[in-house]
Design a protein that fits this description.
Helix 4 packs parallel to helix 6. The chain contains eight helices and four strands. It folds into two domains: about 90 residues, Glutaredoxin (3-Layer(aba) Sandwich), CATH 3.40.30.10; about 110 residues, Up-down Bundle (Glutathione S-transferase Yfyf (Class Pi), Chain A, domain 2), CATH 1.20.1050.10. Helix 1 links the parallel strand 1 and strand 2. A four-stranded mixed sheet has the order 2-1-3-4, with helices on one face.
Length: about 210
């Protein structure tokens, strides 16, 4: 059975969601953030990277949600939520599996400026580049969702599991709101968030969930 090391209010809720979509058994080990909002020492000790999510599968200890999601889909889900290389949609699947880190990087650069107490000028090269990148990501997202119901193709896939944290929970850190300015993306979020497995996973490990009572 796979053990999910879950940090409250983190991207590790993706792994719980994936397991619920695939109807696979798992054990959830919950970790609360410290007063500094960072992962506690107990979680950081599980894997050298010290980041959530982390899974254990037998002797394997694995970090990084993109890798974990594809690993579980292929090794334990028979590839049910992956797109095969021969599928015409495969390049889209690869792209949208990876876009999340780019979006987060753009946000974190902005947050770094804010935390320094320095408001950069509009023509600051780093800020201008960051804003251009962020705008491009949302533009590509909106275009893709005008062409396809899901990011990896006509059917729901791991690419969608990877996307939702960034389109929902990341707003708590100041990410762009998914509102009427992004109609295709807004409809997509509503469509995906209606999935029973998503709703169950969020009740167990989403940002509003709390550590289960012992």
């Amino acid at each position: 059975m796979i053990t999910i090391h879950h940090l409250g209010v983190s991207q590790s809720d993706r792994i719980v969601w994936l397991m619920e979509e695939l109807n696979l058994p798992y054990e959830l080990k919950w970790y609360d953030r410290g007063e500094d909002f960072l992962a506690p020492p107990e979680l950081r000790a599980v894997h050298p990277a010290g980041t959530a999510p982390i899974i254990e599968d037998g002797d394997l200890v694995m970090a990084e949600s993109t890798a974990i999601v594809e690993y579980i889909s292929q090794r334990h889900g028979g590839g049910a939520l992956s797109v095969k290389p021969e599928d015409p949609e495969y390049p889209h699947y690869l792209f949208w599996m990876q876009f999340n880190n780019n979006l987060q990087s753009a946000l974190f650069i902005k947050l770094a400026f804010q935390s320094s107490g320095t408001e950069p000028a509009a023509d600051n090269p780093m800020m201008a580049t960051t804003q251009r990148r962020e705008d491009g990501i949302y533009r590509a997202l909106e275009q893709r969702l005008g062409e396809s119901d899901y990011l990896g193709g006509a059917q729901f896939s791991c690419a969608d599991i990877m996307s939702m944290f960034n389109l929902t929970s990341l707003g708590m850190l100041g990410a762009r709101a998914i509102d009427e300015s992004l109609p295709n993306t807004r409809a997509y979020v509503e469509r995906v968030s209606a999935r029973p497995a998503y709703q169950k996973a969020m009740s167990i490990a989403g940002p509003a969930a709390t550590r289960p009572a012992k």
